[in-house]
Amino acid sequence: MTHPIKRVINTVFLPVSDLKSSIEWYAELFEQPIRPDKTGGGIYWGVSFDGTGIILDNNMWGFPPMIMFESVRDIDASYAFCTDMGYSPIGELYRFDEVAHFAVGGNMVCWAASHERPQSTPGDAHPLLTRISRVLAHGPLEADTERWYAGFLQRDVRPDPLVQGLNGIAMDRGADLLIDDNRLSQSDKVYFEKLRLELRVAPALVIDSPDVEAARSHVIAKGASEVSAVQERMGAACFTFHDPYGNGMMVRQTR
After folding, report:
1. 206: which strand partners?
2. Sign of CA dihedral 77, 81, 82, 84
3. What Rg value do the Cα atoms of the chain yield, rounded?
4. 161 pLDDT higher than 80
5. For residues 152 and 139, what is the distance between their CA atoms, to the nearest angstrom?
6. 191/194 Cα distance (integer angstroms)
7. Which residue of 66, 97, 120, 246 is 20 to 30 Å from 112, comparing CA positions?
8. Over pLDDT 90: what percentage of the chain?
């Protein structure tokens, strides 16, 4: 039988306190037009990448970024699978006309009618920030995190072909999942008052660039904060930065 959870990271939700200003900031960062038809319900489908994108969500403010995996049309099968596996915490299954979703283990599983429609061709990639190539799953015990996602996606964990020394799970399209025990991120934990938990969440994703030095100058000019120096980490030059709302990202040199 087809596994009910697709091996596709459709989106990374980034929590923002001010939706309007965050839309403007990200549109300026990636030099993309603001799309009024993509706004609704406190969220904005923010960045058009090939396969994996960003959603800005002010309903999540105070919570960590969240990975959204796609579900098959029968989302009840996805929910039953997670329940049978004993995953915790698992949230309520919410149903609407063209979308249904639930949260599990800090992730979201979502079916949307739009996922099954022909996707519009993405616009021209930014010359310095070309695509999201990896979405990070942070875990203090790398093996435990690997086992969880291997069971969740029913796919083997393998050495990442680009990030030396780390393992991940290849997705069917879009960004791959990269499991990081902080050797790549080298970031501190953040305390989330609403969860009463201290978690490591930054960077949330890795963006490819053909020229990281120029990309670093670009994000500084666009008002990014906590921009690190360019360093060699696990096989490639990279740097990290934060948006004005505390969401961290990494930019990594492509070969």
Report:
1. 134, 250
2. positive
3. 17
4. yes
5. 15
6. 9
7. 246
8. 76
Report the C-alpha gap between 190 and 64 in whole angstroms: 9
Regarding predicted confidence, which is higher, 123 or 183?
A: 183
State both tokens at 80.
């039953």
For the segment 222-255, what is each residue's pLDDT rounded down to a tens digit? 999 999 999 999 999 999 999 999 999 999 999 7
Residue with tokens 């002010």: 58
Asked whether the predicted pLDDT for residue 41 surpasses 90, the reply is no
